[in-house]
Amino acid sequence: MSTLKSAFLQAISERGYIHQCTDLDGLDAVFAGTPVPAYIGFDCTADSLHVGSMVPIMLLRRLQQAGHKPIVLMGGGTTKIGDPSGKDTARQMLTDADIARNMAGIRSVFEKFLSFGDGPTDAIMINNDDWLNGLSYVAFLRDYGRHFSINRMLTFDSVKLRLEREQPLSFLEFNYMILQAYDFLEINRTYGCRLQMGGSDQWGNIVNGVELARRVDGAEIFGLTAPLITTASGAKMGKTAQGAVWLNEDRLSAYDYWQFWRNTEDADVGRFLKLFTDLPMEEIRRLEALRGAEINDAKKILANEATRLCRGEAAAQEAEETARKTFEQGRSGDALPSVEVEAAALSDYAVIDAMVATGLAASKGEARRLIKQGAVKLNDAPLADTEAKLAPAQAADGQIKLSAGKKRHALVKVR
RNA sequence: GGAGGGGUGGCCGAGCGGUCAAAGGCAGCAGACUGUAAAUCUGCCGACGUAUGUCUACGUAGGUUCGAAUCCUACCCCCUCCA
């Protein structure tokens, strides 16, 4: 690989975003000059994106930072079909109303990471339903279907794996790649977009788009994929006890989001700093060189930076402050999950009920189990009695701190 | 349309009349060790209850039986082969 000239490719190469590219040198030449649009598609199967989409989101952010134009493609049309890539079974069909609601939620996430507008480097958001829904079947087959060979399509992983494992693949899903390829052609025509990016599982779909545009329009466009991010111990990134790590505030509190990053494995810290923060490379190199307990400082910086990008400066500071009080001083911060109780009702309030109410336990049975296992602390004092009730005397500063294990804490606030 | 196979807990997957809240694995939670890390070891892992107890659950709805995830009937869904 020769030396990269464009700021964009230099940055994403150095920070570890590049997995495959259709023509790296050609792409570099295109991006070395004036602003160029590039897009990534996101589907609308949920009303929020989660941490698993952070790499594509950050790719668009880097693109904008390097002076180019990010296009966020919402898969309003393709979501009706479902991408078979990486899935064993067809996804559930969503209604138009579901999709519209999901798109609105996802839009609010992107507004944190990109600056939208009408300028040459402002981000825009478009919806492939706008062109896919009106396609005429016969005309589409005649104009574009003839450029796809079934023989070739059967060799793509998304299709091949299903067939090899004898799992069903509907004709509907089989068409997904054709529509995604057409998206690229359409976006190239309308917006002059030269590049589609995506996760490594999108390689086949992206290549199809590049080839279709070349055959139909003679356009020279490019594809680039990012590696699938797993943790150093091999787990898929982005899952916790409560499920997915959502980017939307209303699905996951800023404190929990901060904690997710704070709990990064040692071996991942450097890689994650490069991928998920805007910190300069020199700073990252210094942080990832830390060893032993010192690497915890790097994890805090990672948590702060990642939370700041997604939830704002204030939320990041509050989460850090709460974590500092909770873990380092044994006190409690304001951002912990809490439940409010009338002072008069306090002495009748069972600890296990409080644990369920604050989310520390999913059921009373689980709460009892945690107590039996010695995991529960009340104001940092171990609690052994599964039937214990709260007492007004425990409410220092008008609140009682409950802990389930070392990491999960909550407050009972007395009114 | 015809013939066969199948739908089990978050996932995978055993069970094939009672001893089944259902083996085993994965995921998850807690404890020990640590650094809010990893690895390792130990315990837990449907709900409600102090409880040997009750309830809910093995695609859906009925039925047979003292007793059904297991047998029968109908329906829904999926797969394979044939047309």
Number of distinct helices: 18
Largest sheet composition: 6 strands, mixed
Poorly predicted runs: 85-92
Total DSSP E strands: 13
* Distance from first to last alpha carbon: 65 Å
Rounded mean pLDDT is 86
The percentage helix is 40-55%
* Structural class by SSE content: alpha/beta
**What's the overall geometry?**
elongated
* Strand order, sheet with most strands: 1-6-5-2-3-4
Rg on CA atoms, Å: 25 Å
Q: Could you tell me the strand content as a percent range?
A: 5-15%
Question: Care to describe what's here?
Answer:
The protein has 415 residues and is of the alpha/beta class. The protein has helices at residues 7-14, 24-31, 54-65, 96-113, 129-132, 137-143, 150-153, 157-164, 171-174, 176-191, 203-217, 254-262, 269-276, 281-288, 295-311, 313-328, 351-358, 364-372; strands at 20-21, 37-42, 69-74, 124-127, 195-199, 222-226, 239-240, 243-244, 338-341, 376-378, 381-382, 399-404, 408-414. Strand 12 (399-404) and strand 13 form a beta hairpin. The model is unreliable at 85-92 (pLDDT under 50). It binds one RNA strand of 83 nucleotides through residues 89, 166-168, 232-233, 235, 239-241, 243, 259, 262-269, 292-296, 299, 323, 326-328, 361, 363-366, 369-370, 372-375, 386-387, 404-407.
